[in-house]
Amino acid sequence: MDVLYARGSATAADIREALPDAPSYSAVRALLRILEEKGHVRHEQQGPRYVYSPQVSRDRARRSALKRLVSTFFGGSAVQAAAALIGSETLSRDEVARLSAVLERARKGERG
After folding, report:
1. Blockwise average pLDDT, block size 10, the chain, 112 residues
2. Which domains does the chain have, with CATH numbers?
3. How far apart are alpha carbons 19 and 92 in whole angstroms?
4. What does each C-alpha distance from 101 to 35, 80, 98, 108 come to in angstroms?
5. What are phi and psi of 104, to 5 degrees?
């Protein structure tokens, strides 16, 4: 998906070339098919090739993936997920200030 978001559209071969330690071409095509079945990407046929493009915004995909990750590894607890992330990092003063601002907005019931 990162390749598609960065390029706007790409063939399976383009995506494979852009990946470090790329899987086989067949594996890329299979993953694209699954993503298409789930509504994340779509394709258009251009000559003999399929050109894929994202169907959902990066932000929507990010939220969906994060929700699944929190559900799978943290029992649905955003607090446990945040604690695990913060506990595994050394935060700069700027990062602590930004995190504090996010928490303050959450306390006030604001989004963003």
Report:
1. 95 96 95 95 96 95 91 92 82 87 87 61
2. 2-54 (1.10.10.10), 58-107 (no CATH)
3. 31
4. 35, 19, 5, 11
5. -65, -40
